[in-house]
Write the structure tokens for this entry.
Amino acid sequence: MKGIFRATFLAILIAPAIAAAKEYGCDEVNWGEEVVKAFPNASKGCHSVMMKNDQPYAKYVAEVQSVNSKSKEVTLHLLDTKDKAISNIVIAPKEGAHVKIDGRDTQVSKLKKGDRVSFYIPHDRWGLYADPDSTPVNIVSREDL
């Protein structure tokens, strides 16, 4: 009897969590026209979704390909969920800009080839954000791979 009670109790606790995860999954994002036009593979590269101020932000993972110390440009490959490069993006962050590596703030000037950084894209407008509270990073170019 205890086993049945525990299983029922766990099912009651877990069911809402499963429903909430599905509700905010990458497949559920309603991409805005601006995002689809600028980044047709937006849904393909989405790793997860974060809600901020009742707005979904899709999380992306990018691998640093090169850092140009003179121009301050960084070339990145946005990766799909299987670590396959789907897009080449060149960014020119402002002086002192930070990105996240494994959840830790890291200065863009300290990035090196092979680093994996996280970015967010709001569901309704094109732009890469180090986190949903930041300003967008200046995108120089983007091309599908």
About this structure: The two ends are 57 Å apart (CA to CA). Residues 2-144 form one domain. Confidence is low (pLDDT under 50) at residues 5-23.
